[in-house]
Amino acid sequence: MTAPLIDALTEHHRLPRLGDDDLDAFLAGDADHLLFVAGDPAKYPEALDVAVILPELIRAFAGRFDAALIAPEAEQRVMERFGVSRFPALILLRGNDYLGAISRVRDWADYLAELERLLAAEPMRPPGLGIAVRVESMANASAVSGCG
């Protein structure tokens, strides 16, 4: 599901809406890219706030990165690819290399400081999303963990 504020990013602000087929082409080269992964605005209403903030961030960092909106059908795969677990998210990349992510809504000063920090950072491995581990009993817990 989309919303008028999110649709305005492509219609009014001319950000590309990227799906699985065109994401890698957009990330080609070594430029810095900011990807907006909104999530369902009915489930994550903060996405509407980020949709308003994003054009302001683009203006504040004029020429330092290009930005794109991730199409709803590609959002989950992009989140998994870059180790991001919370919607909405802004993912900063240098080419195809991960610099970091900002999830949920932040204060304006926090966005500015965090984006400045990420733009100066060296690429790193995206964080893992983690794997759920189930322990069936305390006796198995010490055997599984190697403690005991």
Structural key phrases:
148 residues, 18% strand, globular, five-stranded mixed beta sheet
Question: If strands are numbered along the chain, what order do they take across the biggest sheet?
Answer: 1-3-2-4-5
β-sheet strand percentage: 15-25%
Strand tally, please? 5
The name of the CATH superfamily reads Glutaredoxin
Name of the top-level CATH class? Alpha Beta
Rg: 18 Å
Structural class: alpha/beta
Order of helices and strands: HEHEHEHEEHH
Low-pLDDT runs: 140-145
User: How many strands, what sense, and barrel or not for the largest sheet?
Assistant: 5 strands, mixed
Helix content: 25-40%
Discrete helix count: 6
First and last CA, distance:
50 Å
Architecture overview:
With 148 residues, the protein is α/β, with parallel strands linked by helices. It has a single domain, classed as Glutaredoxin (3-Layer(aba) Sandwich), CATH 3.40.30. Helices cover 38% and strands 18% of the residues. The protein is built from 6 helices and 5 strands, in the order αβαβαβαββαα. The protein has helices at residues 4-11, 23-27, 46-60, 75-81, 108-120, 138-145, and strands at 17-18, 32-37, 66-70, 89-94, 97-103. The chain has a 5-stranded mixed β-sheet, with helices on both faces. Helix 3 (46-60) links the parallel strand 2 and strand 3 (66-70). Helix 1 (4-11) packs parallel to helix 3. The model is unreliable at 140-145 (pLDDT under 50).
